[in-house]
Amino acid sequence: MKEVIFIILQNFFFFLFFYISPFNLILENAKTKFSFIDQINLNIIFFLNILLISSFIKINNFYFIIFYIILCLISLLIKIYYKWEIKKIDLSLVFITLILTTIFSIDLATSIELSWDAKWFWFLKTSALYAENNIYLLKDFISPDYPHLGSLAWSLFWKYPFNLNEYFGRIFYIFFFITSILSFVEVIKVEYLKKIFISLLFIFLIYEKSIFSGNQEILVFSIFVITLKIFLIFMEKKKIYSYFFINLFIFSIFPLAWIKNEGFFLTAIIIFSLILIFYQFSNFSNYLILITFLIFFSRQMFLFIQNINLESFEFDKTLKSSNFENILNNSFFIFKDLIIYSLLQPLIIFGVISMLYIILFHKFFLKKEKLLNFIFIFFILKMVFIFFAFHFSMENVEWQSKVGMKRVLFQFSPIYLLVFYYLDKIKIFK
Amino acid sequence: MKSNFKIKNSIFIFFSFLIFLFFFKYNEIPKKTFSLLTDNYNNRMIKMYGFCEKDGYGFLREIKDKYKFEKNIKIINFKPRPPSDWIINKVNSIYDDHYIFIINYVKDIDLTFVKKNNFFYNTNDYEFSDGISKIKFNIAKKKISGPIKLVIKDKNDKKIYEKQLDKIEDDVWINISYKTKELNSRWNKFQIEIQGLEKSDLDKILDIKVRLISSFNIDNYQIIENSNNCYLLKK
Hints:
The complex is a heterodimer of chains A (430) and B (235). Chain A is mainly alpha-helical and 430 residues long. Helix content of chain A is 72%, strand content 0%. Chain A folds into two domains: 2-264, no CATH class; 313-430, no CATH class. Chain A has helices at residues 2-19, 24-27, 36-56, 61-81, 91-111, 116-131, 149-159, 167-185, 192-206, 217-236, 243-253, 261-277, 282-305, 315-318, 321-325, 327-343, 346-361, 370-392, 397-412, 415-425. In chain A, helix 17 crosses helix 20. The model of chain A has no long low-confidence stretch (mean pLDDT 88). Chain B folds into two domains: 44-105 and 218-234, no CATH class; 109-214, Jelly Rolls. An eight-stranded antiparallel sheet of chain B has the order 7-6-9-4-3-10-5-8, with no helix packed on it. Mean pLDDT of chain B is 86; it is low at 1-5.
């Protein structure tokens, strides 16, 4: 009984913890208004950024939590002092989220399974960070070039507030996944109950146990969903060129490169897709290019300072001429797995069919819709990345593609939520 | 998202039905909640990761709790699974060279090769072998006469081993004793090619067993703890 109660309390804790974030001071005073669930998600991203910074300066887990709670309380006092309106809690959304997170948490607690990769390195990283928040100890460990932010969040919520079992840390992944979907679906212009229904549909279609088995793709997925949500909020309000948008956008994608190595490429693909769409606004493009470079530079500097090589990659073998001789053969394996694993993910099936529908019946090539162009450019860059990544990251392309394709596709799949949004925009559901 | 408390009944019913379906199909939540109430965390972990099978979770935890080792102990799992270090070992702790855990130990490690398109491919993998000890054919008749050439290749068609045979007999071990570590793998496919046989004879070969020389012989160690195929050994 104790475990079930603590699972429910852990989810309550997440709501409270991310509701009273100090970041609310910025969000609630911005000209662009954010909903309750948006605010929860943006606060999660703010928290991930702060957590990342704390890891560089080796702040002890306990002091970090105390520091963060003090910041929350100060922000609350400021609000009370200046009589600023405190964001109303959407009780019905809290209730739905709690039901879903509790269901998934119980599922996680009973199956408890860690994936192959999670056992091999993610969990070991997590348990090391659980014992001591010192990321610099990880450099002599297997795959030191793999980022640490996801493991850090996992270890922190394993320890706080209840310090029970490791899977309590993974409940954070569940919470973020569900709230990110609820947040995204808000942009679809239908009645409240229909939004809930659509959210549930997405959550049930995407959910499978393996996404919470300790792999980090689910965090990349959730952050990408929120990034797209921010993009849509500002696009609808025609404020895409505002610095507030760009900063918020950059701020939300920054953690990606610190969760998985593919996260950096995802960041680059998102940013370059945006630049290609909004290229006529040179300040906007220049700023985005600069930020991409800084993200890349910060990650490389971190590896360089610690003398960490990209040892998880086999560039010394893959860049040999013998590998190029197999390029056709390997392309076949990659293409085959791309099809097979796309067919296993309902969101991708739906997205691709919808894209085909848009191309064939909605005169895609005649329209100069920025959103559509963004989706298609992203799609093309994603394909290019997948072929390059699988050709050159490991020598055994066939095996690498077989074990990795599903997860790579999953990380990129939130883009298909934009297709859903577009279908709603052209009133296909009416 | 603005709450609308004037809920339309039909949508509400649909919504409830969807939740019910979800409960039913994916989660079996009542059953799982009951299991959470009755099974503690350790029991659930043993069910998932095995006591002395799979990752050897139960055995490793029990022995670790009993001996309270301060240093990490090397763990060798004879089944191709991710390293079991995550169960008891700490990152960056040094390893105690005096002890070793063996999980899923088997004395005779056999790779089984089955036929596909006139070649034979392995259906299982081992990581801790020093070479080939012997080979056995499972044939649909008593014997096939040669000369026959047997070639073992890796996935890149690189030759690992070859042998000329005068004949092959059903269920009879052929001694080889060849040292190689190239058959150690978690997931690679190896190929056996039988040259010099008519198609009709080749079709009679059902499968081929390759017995590997194990890298570990527990007779060379002192057994401190043992449960089924799991051991704590001391040098």
